[in-house]
């Protein structure tokens, strides 16, 4: 397996995208409104990718300090370049499993599945300030009767995908309570998929077999969601220790 991001076909596709998963500024604003987030809050943007949510986090708390972290070097570089000179933002190359400092809000868009909902919430609890909260989006089924195409995609890409109740049960089992939940809408998905579509098209000509396989997989993911968007998506949960 290729582990060098400079030559990995997956990173060839995902390099220079504005974000690494579905989301929009309205999601951040909604989460912040549930918390009454202080203008000077301390925020962690965990697995930040190229930093697609940093602007929205700062819009929700204009004098906040955002510590954005990701373990992929070129995502870290992209986020640092975008926020260079802004003292409100620190970008670190770090593993999402380990968060060292205390925060009012830990934000994680679409990346909790790397370690699991329960493991993430238990690991991050020690890094919450009093009255602190965690907001995360997680892949979620919205039907009990999926189409074969969607079912095949889930089994390949998200074998542990569950429904809203299943996510809530994991939250509660980790010792948290739900402050609010919201399904990401089509705008959030197109904010990710529209640039990804363009990137797939740009890379088609001259792609070697390994890259073509990655492009085909990504194209099917996009097409499947557009055809079956009522069946699955992301659920954004805002949670606090119980």
UniProtKB/TrEMBL annotation:
It holds the Pfam family Methyltransf_25. GO terms for molecular function: methyltransferase activity. One of its GO terms (biological process) is methylation. Keywords: Methyltransferase, Transferase. Residues 43-132 form the Methyltransferase domain. InterPro entries: Methyltransf_25, SAM-dependent_MTases_sf. This is Methyltransferase family protein. It comes from Sulfitobacter guttiformis. The lineage of its organism: Bacteria, Pseudomonadati, Pseudomonadota, Alphaproteobacteria, Rhodobacterales.
């Amino acid at each position: 397996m290729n582990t060098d991001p400079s030559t990995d076909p997956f990173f060839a596709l995902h390099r220079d995208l504005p974000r690494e998963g579905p989301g929009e500024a309205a999601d951040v604003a909604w989460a912040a409104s549930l918390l009454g987030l202080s203008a000077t809050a301390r925020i962690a943007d965990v697995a930040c990718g190229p930093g697609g949510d940093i602007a929205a986090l700062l819009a929700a708390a204009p004098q906040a300090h955002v510590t954005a972290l990701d373990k992929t070097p070129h995502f870290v570089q992209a986020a640092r370049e975008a926020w260079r000179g802004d003292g409100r933002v620190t970008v670190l190359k770090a593993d999402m499993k380990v968060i060292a400092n205390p925060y009012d809000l830990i934000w994680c868009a679409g990346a909790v599945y790397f370690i699991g909902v329960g493991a993430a919430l238990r690991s991050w609890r020690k890094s919450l300030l009093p009255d602190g909260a965690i907001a995360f989006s997680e892949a979620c089924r919205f039907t009990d009767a999926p189409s074969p195409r969607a079912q095949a995609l889930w089994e390949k890409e998200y074998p542990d995908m569950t429904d809203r109740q299943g996510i809530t049960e994991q939250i509660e089992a980790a010792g948290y309570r739900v402050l609010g939940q919201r399904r990401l809408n089509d705008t959030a998905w197109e904010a990710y998929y529209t640039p990804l579509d363009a990137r797939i098209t740009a890379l088609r000509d001259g792609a070697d077999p390994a890259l073509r396989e990655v492009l085909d997989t990504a194209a099917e993911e996009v097409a499947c969601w557009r055809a079956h968007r009522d069946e699955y998506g992301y659920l954004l949960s805002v949670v606090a220790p119980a």
